[in-house]
């Protein structure tokens, strides 16, 4: 008689593991089926990102402008130092020549003294360090030589310091250029996003931008505001003549401008030299904190880090070079975070 064994039942632990695994697989499958595809950024999100990148690009541009201005200043200082050193060397050579003539006369008479011999050596500094020989020259000669040698040391030190500053500035400019390139890369990414929008969405963004600003060719009601001064009026008139010129990073006219390039150019046409950057312009005159006290031609500073500037046009309007993709135009002062005005 054959024996009949009952099949071995799976352990409770094994059943639990299998059940749990199956449940997890079902859950994952359900989640995968129900997961929503990644959403395309909305029109407003795209515009917000582009605006932020434009702002970052302008911040980098103003810093780069400042670095360039500082470099130009250093180059002029170095040129002046080199001229001073050359003149000082000529004076020293003249003095040595005159002493050489005196030494020659003494040599012919056989009476050249040790002080002149020492002075005419390759290192005249040794001469000044030896008081026992210095007193054999006239006080006038000693004073002249000391002044020239002191000036030489001073100019050599200044030249060295200026050269070091120029090296540091070159490194700074390189870093700023890299940052600007990085921001421009982000602008490219944002442009790709803009290109994914529908024609209707692009039209809506364009219409929104048009409402926020004024066309360069459109008549703008500037009211009856008076100019801060005759020169301010002249600067404002110069800026008006540039309406419609494109915004370009680092440009100072007359084919294109950035924000501080326009304001510095406009005041230059009025015979007033103001700094190149918006941050420096912010400290160039009397600050006006109330918008109601602004007059035509006053500088208007925007954003907490003072990276944007325009000219007050009257009736709550400014004329400025806004950002990449735009032109010199009028715009409401309320479209940007106003900080203060500056009366040059």
Report on this model:
The chain is α+β, with helices and mostly antiparallel strands and 344 residues long. It has ten helices and six strands, in the order ααααααααααββββββ. It has a six-stranded antiparallel sheet. Helix 2 runs antiparallel to helix 6 (139-195).
Briefly say what this structure is:
The protein is α+β, with helices and mostly antiparallel strands and 344 residues long. It contains ten helices and six strands, in the order ααααααααααββββββ.
Present the secondary structure layout.
Layout: H1 12-34, H2 43-109, H3 114-119, H4 125-128, H5 131-134, H6 139-195, H7 199-212, H8 230-240, H9 259-269, H10 278-281, E1 286-288, E2 299-302, E3 308-314, E4 317-320, E5 329-332, E6 338-343
Antiparallel strand pairs: 1-6, 2-3, 2-6, 3-4, 4-5
Helix pairs in contact: 2-6, 8-9
**Helical residue percent band:** 55-70%
- How does the helix and strand content classify structurally? alpha+beta
Q: Poorly predicted ranges (pLDDT <50, ≥5 residues)?
A: 12-30, 32-37
Overall geometric form:
elongated
**What is the string of helix and strand elements?**
HHHHHHHHHHEEEEEE
Distance between the ends: 119 Å
Number of helices: 10
Instruction: Tell me the strand percentage band.
Output: 5-15%
Report the sheet with the most strands, covering strand number, pairing sense and barrel closure: 6 strands, antiparallel
Number of strands: 6
Strand order of the largest sheet: 1-6-2-3-4-5
For the CA atoms, what is the radius of gyration?
A: 37 Å
Task: Look at the structure and give the mean pLDDT.
Answer: 78
